[in-house]
Design brief:
The complex is a heterotrimer.
Chain A (H helix, E strand, L loop, with lengths): L1 H13 L8 H6 L5 H14 L2 H11 L3 E4 L2 E6 L2 E4 L5 E2 L12 H14 L6 H11 L8 H10 L3 H15 L5 H11 L5 H7 L11 H51 L6 H22 L7 H23 L8 H23 L15 E5 L2 E4 H23 L1 H11 L1 H6 L4 H26 L6 H16 L4 H22 L1 H18 L14
Antiparallel strand pairs in A: 1-2, 2-3, 3-4, 5-6
Helix pairs in contact in A: 1-3, 3-5, 4-5, 5-6, 6-8, 7-8, 8-9, 9-11, 11-15, 11-18, 11-19, 11-20, 12-13, 12-14, 12-18, 12-19, 13-18, 15-16, 15-18, 16-18, 19-20, 20-21
Chain B lengths: L4 H6 L4 H24 L10 H26 L7 H20 L11 H5 L15 H25 L4 H20 L11 E2 L3 E2 L2 E2 L3 H27 L1 H11 L1 H6 L4 H27 L1 E2 L6 H14 L5 H20 L4 H15 L3 H17 L1
Antiparallel strand pairs in B: 1-4, 2-3
Chain C lengths: L33 E12 L2 E12 L3 E5 L6 H9 L6 E6 L3 E2 L5 H7 L1 E4 L11 H8 L6 H6 L4 H13 L15 H14 L4 E5 L7 H14 L4 E5 L3 H7 L2 E6 L2 E7 H6 L1 H8 L2
Parallel strand pairs in C: 3-8, 3-9, 6-7, 7-8
Antiparallel strand pairs in C: 1-2, 1-4, 4-5, 9-10
Helix pairs in contact in C: 3-6, 5-6, 7-8
The chains are: A mainly alpha, B mainly alpha, C alpha/beta.
Chain lengths: 525, 371, 276
């Protein structure tokens, strides 16, 4: 019965569009029984007729009525015959058929399916994407026809998948096998769950298909695992980029002055609050250009943090040269003052910094692997800053002086390098880079007075692992630690990951007390 | 033995210091209890429970400060992780106090409340024997000692020193804090241990128990002071300061700095553990925030304020900073961090020898003026 | 010039390596008259060869001077002997049996090698007396130090050394307050307190007055015979005063060896010192 109906419908569909719909299913739309309605909706969907779209849409919008024996569509003051689409005179007392949630869901997916035949490529693509998660076996012929007509490669690929999913319930084992094979190529968790019932005897009587299904699930699983790990590695990479921005500054100041700045994390905080400040300014004075607040924040954050750094260096750190342990304490004191200042100025609560619109969304590499734009941009930004620092250190006079002071302060002073000024500038540079790290950090995590504290231990670890005053060491250590900790987090949870990383570092220090890139020679004490 | 040890210990302090110590103990063991128990609360002579708890707590901190001074002031090794050893001692004794609650917890169960809450059916293995006072006291000494020994052995063996060592100790206490924050670790997670009822069967809140704990802390502090004075006056102490000033020279005259550093490191850790064990019953709570890096670094500032490399300095520092803290956090809570931060800066910049150094300088000036 | 060795009869009551529980070292054996023996020692720092197949033998009781231009490897050689730097290849033996490349710095000090640094390193916060006390040959383990108490004979020994280095009036002053020359002397005094069999002295008279330099030379000459000495020095007058063999190091290996006059007339040595 069903088959003949479908055949009939297919014939009907080939008729010119203005031809009327089959009146039987249209009438059935207003039936008492919900199941009858569903059947009618599905039947109409199979026609892929623009008229069917019109009727189903009307039903979804509650403008389909039953007047006597006729199904009519009432649009404001006008009434149309549902079957033919002809205008008729307003019926006396139209009855509205009940449309419950089940029917609504059915209508929504039917309308979505029918969009596959829309003239607009964009609409078809959207529809095909939407369909992926709600394919029912009944859609198989519809999808087959849509597939036939489709010319766009991307939509075609999506339709093939949907068709294969619909075909999994095909009575013909050969068709099912074909479908399973097609689905094995994918890497989406929903398709995996669709395939799973077929791996059991109860769900799939045919051995061949079942084995194929088992193989397919395995293949999907391994691809899923890869995607998951790639995703973790990528978020590790972006964490590493932020660590790098934090550690670069530390590595420079440690290398040049031999001091570790415990307030370095607070310089990150200064950068993040500078970003917040720029966002507020744009919101207040240039709301139309709000997306540009972030590029504008970069120089502001750099100079704000650098300024704080210079003040710190001139007022405190300068007077503690050679007393490295006490510098730890004094800079810790500075960090407390900075944190409390932030609390007084901006409140103890986190402030909200939102991504500009061009940073939202991401690149879909695999169905379950989306690389968010904000993280991609952060990685790129960190690489860019790294490049600038490299140029600065290796190609400019300032860089040469900084390297000279790092290697031998006394000798550099003797040959006329203004060591005191170099110290200030190196410190400002390190602080500024931390400020840039703050800009990046504001885009992926909370901005609050305590935010620097969370990153400072990690940044120190980067410096410890990377080695004293070694840019290359800092880069490898930052990226390595970032990726390693995110991967570990995926397997063991955040806390265990953090602890095991710290334990690993302590063990690592045993083997290489001076870090990966150790200085050697008679000057090493 | 050319001279009996007792005599040598006696000569660790001069007569004046012995007298001062005696006065201190008389105050703590006689005067305070009498004033607390025999005068009504509205009397001018009454010493309040609040005061006893506060002073008791600060004496524990002073003990930690002396321990810190041994390693930093005399050994030249700045630990930013001493809060860990303090907390370990506190947790070790806290386990015993938790077991002493018995069935008086809010669930009325044999297990401590937080275990019932986690739906645990029996005590984890490391809680075994925690109902015994003796075992708990042993753990108070042993756990910090073992942790310090293992960590110190590896760190000193690979000659990690200076800021590197400081940073690693900070990471160590940070890692431990994260570990103790987890419920699964088995030490009460976030909340730690609290709501203690008894110690050795006596109510923990009764005035008598408080006074005993107070007195015990005072005695421990005094004993530590004598021990430390003997230690730094011994040849061991001289080798230690020699390592601080010129480690390679010490090696080339045949001392192995590893064992010297390790010894003082473990002694310091154990003293912190004892302080923690005395602290927990008096304050009534121990939780992982005691291990936060900020807490550990604050210990260093007590020592710096008082004057490192002297033994009385850390005690003065612990009292000055913590009295200031309890005053500030009541009167001007928002300014406490400013004060503390500035204290760090001002002391390192202007008072490298601390208050004791300042006092000595002033005295020298006075003498100079008089002469 | 093998001297009659008096070194292998160990002084009474000396605590050797065997008493130092954790030190695994052999007995010092000078039976063949060689105190220090370096063979094919090579040390490189990032490709730069600080020592290049260095061979050197010091006889028991000998006083040897090492000279050479800057960067010749003199200090690195001392670092290798005292265990501060491990050679990449080669052998370093103290006497017949003690392999120096396997020992740590304190162990090497304990088997009887003392070292004076180029820059005087003394304990500036300690008094002169305490500096000598710390250096004194004794059991240097932690427990012994905790329980240590100076005996009368030990005080006498320190007093004797104080007189020898002419610092008896400064005994209770902090060492940091001494003049540069006095610090050099104090460090030499500390070396003597260690009672080493072999003394390594890196530029011992730098910063001393001529008078002090001559007195130092006399002291070293008087020590030779009982001890072996290796002196690195630039001051040729001082080297001349010491007498004994001179070894010239250049680019990490031995360039020439002989008495001072021979070495000074060696064409290669002149080239090295005067430049090509």
């Amino acid at each position: 019965m069903k088959k003949t109906l479908i055949a009939l419908l297919l014939c009907a569909a080939t008729l010119p569009a203005q031809a009327a719909l089959d009146p039987a299913p249209v009438r059935q739309l207003a039936a008492e029984d919900s199941s009858a309605k569903v059947a009618a909706i599905r039947q109409l969907t199979q026609t892929a007729d623009p008229d069917a779209v019109r009727v189903l849409k009307a039903m979804a919008e509650d403008s389909l009525f039953l007047a006597g024996d006729k199904v009519v569509i009432i649009d404001g003051e006008q009434a149309f015959d549902a079957t033919s689409g002809e205008a008729i005179k307003m019926p006396a007392n139209p009855e509205s058929p009940t449309v419950n949630n089940r029917i609504r869901g059915e209508l929504a997916s039917a309308l979505a399916a029918l969009k596959l035949f829309d003239a607009d490529v964009g609409v078809r693509l959207a529809s095909a994407q939407k369909l992926q998660s709600q394919v029912t076996p009944e859609m198989a012929p519809l999808l087959a026809r849509a597939l036939e007509k489709e010319s766009d490669a991307q939509i075609k690929a999506l339709l093939t998948l949907a068709h294969a999913q619909a075909n999994l319930a095909n009575t013909d084992p050969a068709a099912r096998l074909e479908a399973v094979k097609a689905l094995a190529e994918t890497s989406s968790p929903t398709i995996k769950s669709v395939l799973l019932p077929l791996t059991e005897k109860a769900g799939e009587p045919d051995d061949k298909v079942r084995y194929e299904a088992i193989a397919a699930v395995k293949a999907i699983d391994s691809r899923l695992a890869i995607a998951e790990n790639v995703g973790r590695a990528f978020s590790g990479l972006s964490l590493g980029s932020i660590l790098l921005l934090g550690a670069l500054g530390l590595a420079i100041t440690y290398g040049v002055m031999g001091i570790i700045n415990m307030a370095h994390g607070e310089l990150l905080m200064v950068g993040a609050y500078a970003t917040y400040g720029m966002q507020s300014l744009f919101r207040a004075f240039a709301p139309d250009y709000i997306d540009w607040y972030l590029p504008a924040a970069i120089p502001v954050a750099f100079f704000a943090a650098a300024l704080v750094g210079v003040v710190m260096e001139r007022t405190v750190i300068r007077w503690l040269y050679g007393r490295t342990l006490e510098t730890l304490l004094a800079t810790w004191g500075l960090s407390l003052v900075l944190i409390q200042s932030a609390r007084v100025l901006f409140g103890a609560q986190n402030v909200e910094v939102s991504n500009p619109s061009w940073m939202s969304g991401g690149i879909e590499v695999m169905p379950n692997l989306i690389l968010p734009w904000n993280r991609i941009i952060i990685v790129g930004f960190a690489m860019f800053v790294l490049f600038l620092v490299w140029v600065l250190m290796n190609k400019t006079r300032l860089g040469m002086f900084v390297r000279a002071v790092t290697q031998n302060r006394a000798m550099a002073g003797c040959v006329g390098v203004p060591t005191a000024r170099i110290d200030t500038m190196a410190f400002a540079l390190g602080a500024g880079i931390a400020g840039l790290g703050g800009v990046a950090l504001s885009q992926i995590s909370n901005v609050g007075p305590d935010m620097g504290q969370g990153y400072i231990v990690d940044s120190f670890m980067v410096v410890v692992v990377g080695g004293v005053g070694q840019l290359a060491g800092a880069v490898w250590a930052a990226l390595g630690l970032g990726i390693f900790s995110k991967l570990l987090e995926g397997w063991a949870g955040a806390v265990i990951a953090k602890i095991s990383i710290l334990v690993c570092i302590i063990i690592f220090i045993q083997k290489r007390p001076q870090g990966i890139f150790a200085l050697k020679g008679r000057f090493v004490e | 033995m050319r001279k009996p040890l007792t005599l040598r210990i006696l000569s660790a302090l001069d007569t004046k210091s012995w007298l001062a110590l005696g006065v201190f103990l008389a105050l703590a063991l006689l005067v305070v209890p009498v004033l607390h128990l025999n005068f009504p609360e509205d009397s001018a002579f009454h010493v309040s429970t609040y005061a006893i708890t506060l002073i008791g707590k600060i004496m524990c901190y002073a003990l930690v400060a002396v321990a810190m001074d041994l390693i930093w002031g005399y050994g030249g090794i700045l630990s930013l992780g001493h809060g860990l050893f303090f907390a370990l001692g506190g947790y070790a004794f806290g386990m015993y106090l938790m077991r002493q609650i018995g069935r008086d917890g809010s669930y009325g169960a044999d297990l401590p409340d937080f275990m019932v809450f986690l739906d645990w059916k029996e005590l984890p293995w490391f809680w075994l024997g925690s109902d015994s006072f003796g075992w708990a006291s042993f753990l108070v000494l042993a756990v910090p000692a073992v942790v310090a020994f293992v960590f110190g052995y590896f760190a000193f063996r690979s000659r990690i020193k200076g800021v590197y060592f400081s940073i690693i100790t900070q990471a160590l206490t940070y890692a431990a804090m994260l570990l103790f924050f987890r419920n699964e670790t088995g030490f009460g997670g976030n909340n730690g241990f609290t709501d203690f009822k008894r110690v050795l069967g006596y109510s923990i809140t009764s005035p008598e128990t408080r006074l005993v704990l107070f007195g015990l802390t005072a005695v421990m502090l005094a004993a530590t002071l004598v021990f430390a004075a003997w230690l730094v006056k011994s040849k061991f102490g001289r080798v230690l300061t020699a390592i601080r000033d010129a480690e390679s020279r010490v090696m080339f005259i045949g001392y192995n700095p590893l064992w010297y550093k390790l010894t003082i490191w473990v002694i310091s850790a154990v003293l912190c553990g004892i302080a923690g064990a005395l602290y927990v019953p008096q304050v009534g709570i121990i939780n992982p925030s005691e291990m936060s890096p900020g807490n550990s670094i604050e210990i260093a500032i007590w020592v710096a304020v008082g004057g490192r490399g002297t033994l009385i300095g850390p005690i003065i520092g612990a009292f000055v900073v913590n009295l200031a803290k309890s005053w500030f956090t009541v009167s001007f809570p928002e300014y406490w961090l400013f004060f503390l931060g500035l204290l760090f800066i001002v002391v390192t910049l202007m008072l490298p020898q601390g208050l004791v150094g300042l006092w000595k300088k002033l005295m020298a000036k006075k003498e100079g003026a008089a002469a | 010039m093998i001297l009659e060795t008096t070194l292998d009869d160990r002084p009474e009551g000396s605590d050797g390596a065997d008493q130092m529980g954790h030190f695994v070292t052999g007995e010092l054996d000078l039976s063949h008259g060689v105190a220090l023996y370096l063979e094919d020692i090579t040390v490189s720092f990032d490709g730069f060869k600080a020592l290049n197949n260095l061979n050197l033998a010091i006889d028991a009781g000998e006083l040897r001077c090492i000279i050479g231009p800057n960067g010749a490897g003199k200090t690195t050689m001392m670092d290798v002997i005292t265990g501060k730097t491990r050679p990449d290849s080669g052998k370093a033996y103290f006497g017949q049996t003690i392999d120096l490349t396997r020992l740590t710095e304190p162990e090497i000090a304990h088997v009887g090698i003392g070292r004076k640094f180029q820059k005087p390193t003394i304990f500036e916060q300690h008094t002169v007396f305490e500096n000598l006390e710390l250096a004194m040959k004794t059991d240097k383990r932690v427990w012994k130090s905790l329980m240590a108490w100076l005996a009368g004979d030990e005080r006498d020994k320190i007093a004797e050394t104080l007189r020898l280095i002419r610092l008896d009036k400064e005994a209770d002053r902090p060492a940091g307050l001494l003049s540069h020359g006095q610090k050099q002397w104090l460090e030499i005094g500390m070396l003597l307190m260690q009672e080493p069999k072999l003394l390594l002295l890196d530029e011992p008279v730098a910063g001393m007055t001529d008078d002090e330099t001559m007195r130092t030379a006399e002291l070293f000459v008087s020590l030779a015979g009982k001890h072996s000495l290796v002196v690195v020095e630039h001051d040729m007058a001082f080297v001349e005063k010491l007498g004994g063999l001179v070894t010239v190091l250049h680019e990490g290996s031995v360039l020439a060896e002989g008495d001072l006059a021979t070495v000074q007339n060696d064409q290669r040595v002149i080239e090295v010192y005067l430049g090509r």
